[in-house]
Amino acid sequence: MLTRVTLIIGVTAIYFALIAFMGYSVRRHASSSAGFTEGGKAFAPWLIAALMLSEFIGSSVSIGTAQKGFEDGISAGWNLVALSMGFLLLGVLLVGRYRRTKLNTISAILEQTYGKGVRYAASVLTIFSLNVVAVALYASGGAVLGAVMQIDRGVATVIVGLVAIFFVTVGGFRSVIYTNTLNAIIKYVGIVLALAFALTQSGGYAHLRSALAPRMFDIAGVGLSQIVAWMIAGIGSIFATQYVIQGIVTTPDDRGARRACYYVAALMIPFGAIVALIGVSSAYLYPGIRSIDAFPVLIAHMPPFSASIVVIGLAGALFGGISASTIASGTLLLRDFYEPLFRKQGDDRSSLRFIRITTVVIGLIPLVLALFASKILLIAFLGKSLRATLAVMILLCFYAPRFGTPRGAMTGIVLSIVATISWFIAGNPYGIDSSYFALGVPVAAMTVSQLLKVLHRDTHAATAERP
Q1: What pTM value is reported for the model?
Q2: How far apart are CA 295 and CA 318, in angstroms?
Q3: N or C terminus: which one in the chain shows less Cβ crowding within 10 Å?
Q4: 335 DSSP 8-state letter
């Protein structure tokens, strides 16, 4: 057993050294605040596609989908279908509009239509939602490394967190793009190897199907309400994820940005099916384990070298996901709060120092919370759900800028945060998912503000006509 663990640790250490070198080698491009947050040049569509894919097939989605597959069967893959639809619609509806703004933050785009108050509210909401997802990323990474390397899950979580923070603070956005390209490739290879092992150990798909309850192979087993909720959260999160926007604005042109979105959409669906089936296989092979360990325990039983590939793929995606989240949050804090309020004109060194420190602090906060996390997919889902509110505002901003009012936009964001989180904490009573509030509250607030605006206008016009 010692030989097995030693081999996995050795392969993992070599991989970490490789991606650390990749990040360190581009550090000169992170010598300014713009270079740190934007990468310093336009990137090819396939690189941006790999960046976005790596973030959304990160360890929280992999471990969480396998956990859901262990509990409810192959229908767990719908949460990846939702993400695929999000990228497809992003390419069709929003890529060109995002790029024409010449801005790289969602909050700055919303400010053009709804004012500074909405910009600050949107920025806070985005940072909060990204950090909620980061909690799930840390927790899932700790679960994998803890199970495979036979160390305490809390210790493993701290290790992966500190390494991830190091990557982003050294090389900035460019290092995130390059390392995540390699991470995405390794991650995909790793889950294919894991599925091959799982099906072999299970006696094949046909035997697995005959041995488990039929509900485990029901394509809609999680229920229509859950699937719709995943669609709302998945599509909404793609439309309004800060590092996705940072990615698509760094492609050479609109066509390249759309291609990047379509590449990711095509790769998402098979990934979801594979990971859900891994969870189903674990339900047959290891029925007595906790559902959160469905994927980690399977990896722990794989041959050492193939297990190493899965581990470095999961860990690499974890680091990439955390790096992208922290750099996106840091970018928002820099552009929306620090520079307007504290930066002196022409003082870019202070901006660079601020964002480096910020990425460390933002990386540490969810790391502490992750030590107490268990329902990984549920936590990640909350982070995505919250961004559905911003997706509503972005769609209205681009396609119906005269609908509603700035006050309605601010009210919608604030009430959505309160309602969505409160409903989530309450355990989604009556089977109503919290994502419905993230979508419905801002729509309702903007509709009410529009009606009041029309009523006020009509009342004013009637008063003016009186003799």
Answers
A1: 0.78
A2: 15
A3: C
A4: I
Kindly state whether residue 51 falls inside one of the protein's structural domains.
yes
pLDDT for 238-291, tens place per residue? 888 777 887 788 788 889 889 999 999 999 999 999 999 999 999 999 998 988
pLDDT tens per residue, range 414-426: 999 999 989 888 8
Residue 458 is assigned to a structural domain of this protein: no
* Residues 37 and 172: beta-carbon distance below 8 Å: yes
Which DSSP string do the residues of 51-98 spell out, in sequence order? HHHHHHTSHHHHHHHHHHHHHH-GGGGHHHHHHHHHHHHIIIIIHHHH
Instruction: Work out the number of other CB atoms within 10 angstroms of the CB of residue 85.
Output: 18
CATH number at residue 14: 1.20.1730.10
Say how far residue 465 (Cα) sits from the centre of its chain.
54
Torsion angle of the four alpha carbons 130, 143, 280, 7, in this order, in degrees rounded to the nearest 10: 120
Has residue 210 been placed in a domain?
yes
The domain in which residue 299 lies consists of: 2-387
Give the burial class of 213: count Cβ atoms within 10 A of its Cβ; 0-12 exposed, 13-18 middle, 19 or more buried.
exposed
**C-alpha distance across the termini of the chain, in Å:** 94
> How far apart (Å, rounded) are the C-alpha atoms in residues 125 and 386?
7
Rounded CA separation 103/234 (Å): 23
Q: Assess if residue 156 is contained within a domain.
A: yes
Residue 35 has pLDDT above 60, yes or no: no
Residues with Cβ within 8 Å of 348's Cβ and at least 6 positions away in sequence, in order, are: 32, 33, 34
Give how many domains the chain has, as a whole number. 1
